[in-house]
Amino acid sequence: MDKSLKSKLPLLLTFCLFTNFLPASDSLLCSAFALEKYYKVARYDTDGRTGSNGRSGRNGSSGENQNIFVDGSPINLDLSGKGGEDGEDGERGYRPNCGNQPDKVSHDLNAPNGGNGGSGGRGGDGGNGGSITVYYTNLADLRNIFVRTIGGEGGRGGRGGNGTSGCKCQRRKWEVQTCEGTPATPNYKCTNKVYRCSDGNHGGDGSDGRDGSKGSLGNLSIVKSEEPLADDNPTMNLTISELTKPFNLSKNKWNLRQGAIYLLAPGSAIADNYREFEQRLEEAFQIVWQETESITSFANQAITLNLTDSKQVKVTFSEDLWIDGSSKSEANLTTFTINHAILKKDVTRLAVAEFADTGQNLNLKIVDLAAKSDAINTQFRLKFRAQDSLYGFSGYKTEYEGDIPNEFVTRDYNRFTLALGKLKIPNEALRPGVNVEIEVVVTRSLGERSAKQTIRWQGVVRKPRREI
């Protein structure tokens, strides 16, 4: 289509809305123009719609878990899971609106495409077989228990819907004559151009839904006891303030064995692995607060406790809290003594306090604003760059890069002094008037946790103060 005509499309379409008030010839012109535009863009506006996807099938329900006490009497149980539902088929694609092909238009045409079919729904998973816990006094009595704990079959996936056919062109090609200039003059010239119509594409078929998974077999647990087991309570999520008094953790310890079908009546269907109760584990836990800062500053910090099969209490503190402490277990009570507690945000609050002296006496002093350095291990790595302005050097040169040995670091409470003049730095870089760039990477660690802080400082080596 001519670019000038494209720019006028909105105006022409608006004008065509009033064809009832135009002469017949003008109304016909508008109708032809609207039809041409409609069919040209029909590929985008009137393609066949995609059919709806099929609904997924519901999962089958699992078999009921049961606890039973055996005394030698026959028992027959079916704890099988239910099958999953089939997924629904996808809907067939919708047919396109083919309409009438415009005649003698000055551009190629594409007929509308057919609609795609909807995808089939996924089949529901089969339910798992129920598990059974057997309490007994004589293991041979289990041979009188017939149990089926088969998992339910998965539902079949729905089939994808069929796509629909695209529209066919009523005319495959045509010629349109275009003339330029004034008739009956030498500059009048006419040319014929061939245009074509392409059939619409067939809509794609929807994909088939996936079949659901088969449910698993149920499991067997056996307990040599006439009394039911108490519930487990092996894990607790608490705060530090709550744990200043004892909290009880408990766990039923099991041994994993094989050959469940040989314990039960012939023909039983159950998973081969089974659990045999070994013992009941119980342990109390309490925190002993030895940190000098009040526990109220850390009261809401979270702690997770977990009682292991070895009757040890595993303690996990919040990521926002660094702890230095130790645990001790005695008489079914585990106490965890907290010697130092530091919030993570206070670990990396170091800053330059002073850059003083020259030559071998040059030092950099760094202060711990959180005042926690008596508990935290601190190491320093230095990058020292110098620029001697007296000789007009324009750039900085790296004179030292590496760890600062411990013998060149002293700590007075929460103030560190780094003896830079003792490092292998050329004397010329330590003279008064030298501009320096210093980068110190501080590694702070406590227990298994560590963090890094980078401190950058820029200044000039100054003459030492004269003592009066």
What key attributes describe this structure?
single chain; 468 residues; mainly beta; 4 domains; flat
Structure described in brief:
The chain has helices spanning 3-7, 9-16, 24-40, 42-45; strands spanning 66-69, 75-78, 109-110, 132-136, 145-148, 173-180, 189-198, 220-224, 235-239, 247-258, 273-289, 302-307, 313-317, 321-330, 333-343, 350-356, 363-368, 377-388, 397-403, 409-412, 415-418, 434-446, 449-460.
**What average pLDDT do the residues reach?**
88
Task: Look at the helices and sheets and give the structural class.
Answer: mainly beta
- Total helical elements: 4
- Order of SSEs: HHHHEEEEEEEEEEEEEEEEEEEEEEE
**Rg measurement, Å:** 42 Å
Structure description:
With 468 residues, this protein is mainly β. The chain has helices at residues 3-7, 9-16, 24-40, 42-45; strands spanning 66-69, 75-78, 109-110, 132-136, 145-148, 173-180, 189-198, 220-224, 235-239, 247-258, 273-289, 302-307, 313-317, 321-330, 333-343, 350-356, 363-368, 377-388, 397-403, 409-412, 415-418, 434-446, 449-460. The strands form 6 sheets. Strands 1, 4, 8, 10, 11, 14 and 15 form a 7-stranded mixed sheet that branches. A 4-stranded antiparallel sheet has the order 16-17-21-20, with no helix packed on it. A hairpin with an 8-residue loop joins strand 18 (377-388) and strand 19. Helix 2 packs across helix 3 (24-40).
